[in-house]
């Protein structure tokens, strides 16, 4: 009972959108079992496991994720696997793939910046802001390019159709990856300059504050400190 109570507490600590997604996956899994829809049951279970895996992995590394990061990871996996595959959203909506590519590229731009910032232990003056933004941008675009190579390899080796329309699909994916990665990298640039861009720079602030062990030299920008006093 104590173990069950522990997991219930953990569940309640998650963002509301994550709770709703996990609850919908549980209902879909139970409903699929009741109607003998084994493939749907497998996809629901796999989606839950994959949405949980990154959270467990980063915790073992000693990384504390802000609520926005947790929500973003779970939403992306839910949209990609459960809605995308089980409910065929990729075929129903032509913009679904673009949405997910853009969202993932933006996230990798932010992650790339946070990784680059750890190399300097959070010292914003150790390297030019544009250089850290360039590293973040390169990281995001590299991830996107490697994924396109993976899709090509799967199509050529197993006769799949991950690239769909081939060259056109690949090029649009790369264009979206460049755009999303650029926005994420630009957020990192603004973060170092003490400026804001909606909630994206706030996510960077939150991550750095929660993981001070990796950013020991980080000091709030003078512009940010003035804003806090105001």
Please provide a written account of the structure.
The protein is mostly helical and 230 residues long. The chain folds into 2 domains: 92 residues, no CATH class; 137 residues, no CATH class. The protein contains 10 helices and no strands. The chain is globular. The chain starts with a helix and ends with a helix.
Please give a handful of descriptors for the protein shown.
230 residues, mainly alpha, 2 domains, 10 helices, globular
SSE layout and pairings?
Layout: H1 2-13, H2 16-34, H3 38-60, H4 67-86, H5 89-92, H6 96-119, H7 129-158, H8 167-192, H9 200-210, H10 222-229
Counted beta strands: 0
Q: Main beta sheet, described?
A: none
Radius of gyration: 20 Å
* Total tally of structural domains: 2
Number of helices: 10
Question: Roughly how much helix do the residues carry, as a percent range?
Answer: over 70%
Helix/sheet category: mainly alpha
Strand portion = under 5%
Order of helices and strands: HHHHHHHHHH
| Average residue-wise pLDDT | 87
Shape: globular
N/C terminus separation: 49 Å
Low-confidence stretches: none
Summarize the structure.
With 230 residues, the chain is an all-alpha fold.
